[in-house]
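ok new one. same drill as before - structure tokens go in, u give me an amino acid for every spot. 134 of them this time. try not to just spam alanines like last time pls lmao
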């Protein structure tokens, strides 16, 4: 993954990281996003602005579900927009889960992500929001 991060955001890096998120690599996500990134997370998380808040959500996701794994079976690109349909599996407070969602990322020419819409209506994001409120 570290080699993939040095080139900016790529679908290969996305797939590699989310296959088994590594807490030690999460801080490196700052390298592939702008300092003023805007993340549109599912409610109740909502809109987060700046890389600190954005990366904090990713950190919370990995901590809430240490066995989380995402696959990305579909990917499309149109200019600076990248669309990734993903499937998540793991264990939440109610037991094992599987659900899918979609990320729509805006990536600058230098490879940094400046905007990410995450579309998903699974209750897992309520667990993440609870963790962030602590």
């Amino acid at each position: 993954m570290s080699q993939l991060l040095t080139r900016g955001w790529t679908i290969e890096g996305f797939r590699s990281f989310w296959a088994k998120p590594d807490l030690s690599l999460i801080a490196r996500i700052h390298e592939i996003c702008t300092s003023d990134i805007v993340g549109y997370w599912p409610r109740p998380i909502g809109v987060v602005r700046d890389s600190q808040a954005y990366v904090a959500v990713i950190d919370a996701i990995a901590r809430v579900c240490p066995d989380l794994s995402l696959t990305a079976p579909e990917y499309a690109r149109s200019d600076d927009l990248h669309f990734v349909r993903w499937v998540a599996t793991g264990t939440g407070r109610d037991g094992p889960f599987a659900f899918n969602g979609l990320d729509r990322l805006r990536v600058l020419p230098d490879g940094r992500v400046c905007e990410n819409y995450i579309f998903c209506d699974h209750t897992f994001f309520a667990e993440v929001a609870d963790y962030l409120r602590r």
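Helices lie at 2-5, 11-19, 51-64, 124-133. and btw The CA atoms of residues 33 and 51 lie 7 Å apart.
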